[in-house]
Design goal:
Length: 274
DNA sequence: CCACGCTCCTGCGCGC
DNA sequence: TGCGCGCAGGAGCGTG
């Protein structure tokens, strides 16, 4: 599902084709996403082109002379630039038509969102309280240690909180903790500075590798250009319960934390108190 | 402030 | 072959 690497991959994939092309019309077939899609987008967007496309966490920000279109792909959303003549298919909820091109939003599960703001998008209530970007300078061992110090919750749940750091969904939380050699159930406040260093490094390497690979793939996820991601073939723990760990041969274990599937290697990620 | 569980939704894989 | 169930999952939101 779209985690940060998928969103970044989408942004890179559609940036060249979605910017600088005057918008002719907006078609909203189904406004019922996570929040209602503002219907007046059909009046506001036409007549101008998107001028920029950036990403904050898993939110895509399309700059427009009149404001900013904020899009979240949820867990099954796709954004693609396709020929405007292509017939709409199931779950094609919104089209933004730009000449012979069309930016099309498809989202079977409708966990996604499309919002509009005419203020600074980074001050939007959904974005203002987000944690630092994992691949930027604000995310380091000192920051992590400071934020974890008072947290009693398990480290896996802590790093999946977008207010602590953005972009670490279930898959990458599992993978990062494996790389860092930290048990997912370890209380967040028990992590040492060296462990925080390892974890920051692991999160960075995991996300960077996934972006490099063009985004992961789970079932129906397809890249902006229609190719499937292949990072999933490199998973070390995710979906590998009862299969041997690539590092030590012990069997990968599966449990549930906060309702999410949690995978770990009992040998490489021992549950040790400090 | 903190921790936790519920909720939105559809498609798929599985067991019977 | 079909049916029903459980699961997948981001993240806001309500509750204690």
């Amino acid at each position: 599902m779209p985690e940060l690497p998928e969103v970044e991959t989408t942004a890179r994939g559609i940036r060249p084709s979605s910017l600088g092309r005057p918008i002719d019309r907006v078609v909203i077939r189904n406004a019922s996403l996570r929040w209602p899609v503002p219907l007046h987008l059909t009046d506001i967007l036409p007549g101008h082109a998107f001028t920029g496309l950036s990403r904050r966490g898993k939110y895509l920000l399309f700059q427009h002379p009149r404001g900013t279109l904020i899009i979240h792909l949820g867990m099954s959303g796709h954004l693609r630039v396709i020929p405007a003549t292509k017939a709409a298919e199931k779950h094609d909820h919104i089209d933004i038509v730009m000449g012979i091109h069309c930016l099309r939003f498809n989202d079977p599960r409708r966990f996604g969102a499309m919002l509009w703001t005419e203020s600074d998008p980074l001050q939007h209530p959904l974005l203002a309280t987000l944690g630092p970007e994992p691949l930027e300078d604000g995310f380091d061992a000192d920051y992590l240690l400071g934020r974890l110090r008072k947290k009693q919750i398990a480290i896996k749940l802590a790093i999946m909180d977008s207010h602590l750091v953005v972009g670490v969904g279930n898959i990458y939380a599992n993978e990062s903790l494996f790389l860092a050699g930290i048990h997912p159930q370890k209380p967040a406040c028990d992590l040492t500075h060296p462990e925080c260093t390892k974890l920051v490094d692991a999160i960075r390497r995991t996300l960077a590798a996934a972006i490099e690979a063009g985004g992961s793939s789970l079932r129906d996820y397809v890249q902006a250009d229609g190719n499937k991601g292949w990072f999933q073939q490199q998973y070390r723990t995710y979906g590998r319960q009862d299969q041997p760990c690539h590092q030590c041969g012990d069997l990968i274990r599966l449990s549930r934390m906060g309702g999410r599937a949690t995978y770990w290697c009992p040998h490489c990620q021992p549950f040790v108190a400090n």
